[in-house]
Amino acid sequence: MSTQSTYKYPKIFKLESGKKLRTLEIAYQTFGKLNANKDNVVWACHALTANADVLDWWEGLFGNNALFNPNEHFIVCANILGSNYGTTNPLSENPITGQPYYLSFPEFTIRDLASAHHLLANHLGIDTVKVLIGGSLGGQQALEWSLSKTQTIENLVLVATNAVHSPWGIAFNESQRLAISADRTFYANQPTGGLKGLKVARSIALLSYRTYQAYADTQLESVNDKTTGYRAASYQNYQGEKLCKRFNAYSYWYLSKAMDSHNVGRGRKSIAAALDEVKANTLVVGIENDVLFPIVEQQYLAKNINGAQFSSISCAYGHDGFLIETDKLTNIIGTFLKESANKKIIKLNRTA
C-alpha cells in the first residue's frame, strides 16, 4: 500500500536562525502499513534533488522484493523543506505578499530539515523509528535527527555522509551558486529564473559525484579523429538540461546552503562530543573513492559514535555509488540489522 500525502503544520514553524515560516507543508509518501506495535518504521531521508518516492530513486534497496519492502516495513520518506516536490519552498506563496518567496525565503539548516521530520513523525503517531537511513544530504539529516532526542531511533544507517560539511564540499557548492547567480534571470522573480545557471551548476556537481574512472568507462571516444562534439561534453549538457526540467534554481540555491550549514558541533561542546551522544545502533558506510564525501569522513563518524560499525564499498562512480551499489548495501545493511536484532533479543533475555 502506497500513500502520497501532505501534512500542513498548524502552527508557525520557527527555524534555527530564529526566523519563522507562517505556513509549513510537508509532502511525504508512505509504503506498507504501520503494525500494531508501531515498531516496523523505516524512515528514509533523501538527498539534494530527490523526492519522497524512495522506491523509485533508491530502487534495489527499497522495493517489493528488496531489503526494505512494504510487506514487512512501514516506509516513510518526506520531501524536505526547500525542495520543490510539494514541501514549502522558495516558489511557494508567501502568505504576507500573496506572491512566491523567491529570494525572500528564509535560509534554513540541516537541523531545520530534521525538525520537520520530527513534526511529521509526531503527526503520524510514530514514537520509535526502527531504521533511520540516509545518504549524502540525507545522511546529514538522519544524523541531526538522531541527536535531537525526539523520537527513539533504534538503528541509524549513515551512507556517504559526514559530521560537518567540509571546506571542499562548501567550495563545490559555492561554485555552483556562483554559476546560478551569474544568470541574470535568477533575480527576475520568475519560476524559471536562473535555469541557465542551474544547468552549469549541475555540470559542476557531477564532477564531484563521479570519478575520473567513471567518465573513462562511459564517455571515452571510440575514434581518434574528433576535434569537437565529445561524448563527455554532450553528457554534461544532457545532465544539466535534465535537472532543469524537474527542479528550480531557487530550491537548489537554498538546499546547497543548508548542506553547507551542517555541523553537529554547532551549539554543542564539540563535534566529537556531539557524536558521542548518538544512542542508536549505528552503521556507517563509506565509498572508497568518493570525491565529495571522502571516506575519512565516514571513518571519523564511526570512530566517534559509540559502538558504531563501519563498512566501505568500492564503486567506480564515486559518491553516486550510494544510489547505484544497492546489492552491496543490501548485504552490509542486512547483516547489520540481523546482528542488531540478535543483540536486542540477548539484552531482553538478560533483563527478563
UniProtKB/TrEMBL annotation:
Taxonomically, which superkingdom? Bacteria
- Pfam families from the xrefs? Abhydrolase_1 (PF00561)
What GO molecular function annotation could you give as one example from this UniProt entry?
homoserine O-acetyltransferase activity
Q: Which residues form the AB hydrolase-1 domain?
A: 44-322
Give the enzyme's main class according to its UniProt record, as a single word. Answer: transferase
Q: Which reaction does it catalyse?
A: L-homoserine + acetyl-CoA = O-acetyl-L-homoserine + CoA
Q: Subunit structure, per the record? A: Homodimer.
Q: What is this protein called?
A: Homoserine O-acetyltransferase
